[in-house]
Amino acid sequence: MKDKEQDGDFYSHRNHKLVKKLEKTGVKLYFPERDTNQSLSPKKILAKNREALEASTAIIVVLSDSRGIYLEAGYAKGLGKKVIGLKVEETRSLGLISRNFFDYVVDNIDELSILLKDLEKEE
User: Fold this and answer.
1) Structure pTM?
2) Number of folded domains in the chain?
3) What residues pair up with 87 in beta bridges, in sequence order?
C-alpha cells in the first residue's frame, strides 16, 4: 500500500472532496486543478491561476506539504487578499510567524464553511 505522503492522488482526491463539500453550502470557488486547463503550458497555467487570484477576495490554503500553494498564498497576501489556512490530517504545527501570516486558520471544513459565509456577508 502506498504511503499517503507520497501519493499525489490522495491529495487530489481529498481536495476535490473539500471543494464539493464547500460548493454544496453555496460557496463559490475557483479550484485551479479543475478550473484551469491543465493541458496548457506551465507558464500559461501560472498566468491563469494568477488571474484567478487577482479576481478573488480570498485564498484557501490546505495546510499540507504541497509547496506550490504557498507560492500562491504569498502572491495573494501581496495583493492584499485574505489568506485562510485549513488544517488537514497531515498539518504540522504552525510556528508563530507562519501562524501570523494567515488571516484565519480553521480546524475543519465546517469551520471553513461558516467563516466563508461570514466573509461573504462583509463584502
Assistant:
1) 0.83
2) 1
3) 63
